[in-house]
Specification:
314 residues, 3 strands, mainly alpha, 2 domains, hpI Integrase, Chain A, three-stranded antiparallel beta sheet, elongated
Length: 314
């Protein structure tokens, strides 16, 4: 006969109170505003579903409710988005469980087929990296061109780009100091010499009283949406219909690996806390590794130089 277990579930926590406590917990942990915003969105979606099926208190959430919610998400979203929602819900339920608000509820993520990311081709990058006429172009066009160079050479995220200052460029040692990252760990990224030259010239065009490396045309810090729209306009003006800042990150990973880059070094360059994500890039592009001659590294893209090829022996 199985032994009786002590029931440690606390009574009387409504969904609203449970969510409020969880969001406060996130703020105490100093999670980013974006992360907290995402938790708020998923909490709202999850609690609306629970109320529709008659659940008002945290203690009443069962494994059956979680399974039904997973099926509900699958009817509305792509598998990858379903897993995003399930990860957020898992964090919320684990927090409630740790406080004794409800029994342990198991959440199993969907098995999602990994797909090859649609990166920028070398031809597209060459078009995007073509320098505008700085005598006639607007500041935004010049700035966006420099941003494209930085994205291509580093694979930085949008938020890191927006928070760069002029002082973050270490011209003497050839590094970029990335102070704001997703993992909240500062990074030092090596920069190609040609990019350092580009940045040195560009900084002269930014008013000396502005500390930001990539300010708006009004000299203020750009919103993420502003940067997205600005770069979309930049791409389409050059006849490139592909858009998206994160696409540069995927492209950077692909080209780095195709040129023989080590996945451990890639993890450091991308700022991944674990090797798992970097390894995914290696797995996705493994089939392309058979033909590394198709890809160029950043210096080759901006200089137009070709690799030296061995002459066939007679």
């Amino acid at each position: 006969m199985a032994r009786l277990k002590l029931n440690n579930v606390t009574n009387g926590k409504t969904l609203e109170v449970g969510v409020e406590e969880f969001i406060t917990f996130c703020k105490v942990k100093k999670l980013s505003d974006k992360t907290i915003q995402n938790y708020n969105l998923w909490c709202k979606d999850f609690t609306l579903f629970l109320k529709d099926v008659g659940v008002q208190q945290v203690k009443d959430i069962s494994q059956s409710h979680m399974n039904s919610y997973c099926i509900n998400l699958q009817a509305r979203l792509q598998d990858a988005s379903v897993n995003t929602g399930l990860r957020h819900c898992r964090a919320i339920l684990n927090y409630w469980n740790s406080l004794g608000y409800l029994p342990k509820v198991k959440i199993t993520l969907l098995k999602v087929q990994e797909t090859v990311k649609d990166c920028y081709s070398n031809t597209e990058l060459s078009i995007l990296l073509k320098k505008p006429d700085t005598k006639t172009c607007k500041f935004a066009d010049y700035r966006n061109w420099v941003i494209v160079n930085v994205l291509t050479a580093t694979g930085l995220r949008a938020n890191s780009i927006l928070n760069l200052s002029k002082q973050d460029v270490d011209f003497e040692n050839g590094f970029l100091k990335v102070q704001i990252t997703k993992q909240r760990k500062a990074q030092l990224l090596p920069l190609p010499k040609q990019l350092l030259t580009i940045l040195k010239q560009y900084i002269k065009a930014v008013p000396s009283d502005i500390d930001l490396l990539f300010p708006s045309e009004l000299g203020k810090k750009m919103l993420t949406t502003t940067l997205y729209h600005s770069m979309e306009t930049y791409n389409k003006a050059r006849g490139i219909m592909k858009v998206g800042l994160h696409r540069y990150r995927h492209t950077f990973c692909r080209n780095y690996l195709l040129n023989g880059g080590n996945v451990l070094y890639l993890q450091k360059l991308l700022g991944h806390s674990q090797l798992t994500m970097s390894q995914k890039y290696a797995n996705i592009y493994s089939s392309d590794l058979q033909n590394t001659l198709e890809c160029n590294i950043y210096n080759q893209l901006v200089s137009g130089e070709e690799r030296i090829k061995m002459q066939s022996r007679k």
